[in-house]
Amino acid sequence: MQTFGIIGLGKLGLSIAIGLSTQGRLSWTMNRSLEQRNAAKFLLSVSLPMYPSLSSIKEPASCMILAVADNAIAEVSEQLAAHFGSRLNDVIVMHCSGAKTRAALKACEEQGAITMSLHPYQTFAMATAKNFKDIPWGIEYPPIEPFRTIAEQFAQDLVYTLGGKLVTLSQETLAHKPLYHASAVFSANYLNALVGFAAQSAVQAGIDPQEFLPQILRRALENAIAGLKQLGTGKFPLTGPISRGDTDTLREHLASFRALPNPAEILRPYCLIGIATAEFACAQGVIDATKCKAVVELFEQALHS
Fold this sequence. Notes:
Helix content: 40-55%
Distance between the termini: 66 Å
Strand order of the largest sheet: 3-2-1-4-5-6-7-8
Number of domains: 2
């Protein structure tokens, strides 16, 4: 049976560990942080080996998953190569970065490992195996057989066990992989920031964000998802004053922000996001260039006044 070892017990690594552990597929985990290891003990099998360092790992698993920070992948790969040497021959080593390609695992590959990158296109606010249900995993395989087929078998085993689906990334996507990752950042991180700013504005207006925001957010997200089906047609749904080129209403917003005790907290993000939205509306044909210019100039003046 194929076995898995996980290096890194952050939210992503722990989510994978929980999913594999419940299926009896996890051999060990490794994490330097005692605090994170202790937290993981409450969510994983009590008999599961948890190593405090790479050098303490006794044997490589059939597949080792690097769920570490992007800037640590190459270093961890080098340390694994130094620790296991030729014992990495035909072992699968994968990382979960959305921005890095499998080239970051070069040191392990030089010791005979079969390397790949496998990125779950999801946001991980908390550690739970439910994070993976129905999500796509962008994968980069080794280009040469039989290594590609071997890697694919492990990837299918992992992803299908967790309830996701595999999507092979094209060479074009791999050549611009940071853009692929940026699309996920827009979808998750920036969306949360927008909701946070909306909540701040609601509080300043004296209304309860929990009462007023959920329904409009749900409808807006539904509209945005519907717009994905029409992407590139100029029909992406946009509403509100920017979609009408209504600078009078926007001036009223800005005047209200300026009257707050700490106006920059909301005024600056409102203007920056407003500029981007106006330019997007213009590109989609929602407003013409003249209205776009008027909106952008209004926001730029507010930023520098």
